[in-house]
Each structure stands twice: as C-alpha cells, then as structure tokens.
C-alpha cells in the first residue's frame, strides 16, 4: 500500500480539489507548490482561465502551506489580483507564509503560467480551527 503524503494526511480528502485536477508538487510548513492544468473545463467564454479557477488554486495552495504546521486551519479571507490572461498550458501556485501566529496565518501566493510569467497574486489569512466534542471542525 503506498504511503500517504503528509499534506494529504493533514488535509484529508478534498473532492473539489481532486475534481479540478490540482496536483501538489511540494508541501511543507509555511509553503506549498500546486499545479493546475488548463483544460476546457476551467476556461470562460473568452477562452481564458476563469477567475474562480485561479482562486481555487491559490486557496488550496495556501491551505496546504497553513495546515502543514500541523494544526487544522480554515480560510477567513482572501483577495486576488489577475495580472494576465492564460489560455493554455498550466498554472503553478507558490504559497508562502508571511506570518504564522498562534491563531492566524497570513499567506501570499504567486501564480505563474507555463512560461513562468506572473499571472495572478493572492493574499489571504487562515485561522486555527477548533474541534467540537462531536469531532466537527469549527472556528
């Protein structure tokens, strides 16, 4: 039986991330690299990658970087700036922790295309999630 990567053990199964084709290239406390292939399913009516696909990629890579500290976290906010359209190839997100506190982590994510052009920048924050007595995650 193959060994489960640490990021997968901490993040659990994420059906949405799996369905969108996100591929984790690297993961560690405070950093992550995630790849997203550009397919017809994520292009908008103009033929460009849809903004929500960029946001999904950024959010997921930030979540991995934040959760790799070992304590479950959940997103509390995020903003993204779109710098250039992408129509083909793939996108790669590089998430880095700007500050990791006891309850909050602040992240930046740079998204680049297959030619290594910076095409989007994301900033976000996550908060430590507590477990209820029933085992459900809550903030």
How do the strands and helices of this protein lay out in sequence?
Layout: H1 6-11, H2 15-20, E1 23-28, E2 31-37, H3 51-67, E3 73-82, E4 90-100, E5 104-113, E6 118-128, E7 130-131, E8 137-138
Antiparallel strand pairs: 1-2, 2-4, 3-6, 4-5, 5-6, 7-8
Shape descriptor reads globular
Low-confidence stretches: none
CATH class: Alpha Beta
Order of helices and strands: HHEEHEEEEEE
Fraction of residues in H or I helices: 10-25%
CATH A-level architecture: Roll
Q: Measured on Cα atoms, how large is the radius of gyration?
A: 15 Å
Q: CATH superfamily, called what? A: Hotdog Thioesterase
- Give the mean pLDDT: 89
Number of helices: 3
Total discrete domains: 1
CATH topology: the name is Thiol Ester Dehydrase, Chain A
Class by alpha and beta content: alpha+beta
Largest sheet: 6 strands, antiparallel
- Give the end-to-end Cα distance, rounded to a whole number of Å: 34 Å
Q: Count the strands?
A: 8
The strand order across the widest sheet is 1-2-4-5-6-3
Which range does the strand content fall in? 35-45%
Would you kindly provide a brief summary of this structure?
Helices cover 21% and strands 42% of the residues. The chain has 139 residues and is of the alpha+beta class. The strands form two sheets. The protein has a six-stranded antiparallel beta sheet, covered by helices on one side. The chain has a two-stranded antiparallel sheet with strand order 7-8.
Short key terms for the protein model shown above:
six-stranded antiparallel β-sheet, Thiol Ester Dehydrase, Chain A, globular, alpha+beta, two-stranded antiparallel ribbon
């Amino acid at each position: 039986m193959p060994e489960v990567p640490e990021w997968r053990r901490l993040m659990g199964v994420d059906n949405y991330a799996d369905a969108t084709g996100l591929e984790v290239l690297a993961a560690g406390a405070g950093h992550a690299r995630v790849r997203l292939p550009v397919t017809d399913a994520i292009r908008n009516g103009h033929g460009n990658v849809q903004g929500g696909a960029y946001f999904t990629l950024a959010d997921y890579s930030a979540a991995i970087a934040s959760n790799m500290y070992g304590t479950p976290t959940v997103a509390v906010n995020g903003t993204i700036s779109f710098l250039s359209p992408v129509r083909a190839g793939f996108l790669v997100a590089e998430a880095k922790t700007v500050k990791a506190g006891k309850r909050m982590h602040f992240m930046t994510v740079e998204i680049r295309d297959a030619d290594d052009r910076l095409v989007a920048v994301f900033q976000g924050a996550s908060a430590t999630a507590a477990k209820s007595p029933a085992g459900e995650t809550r903030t």
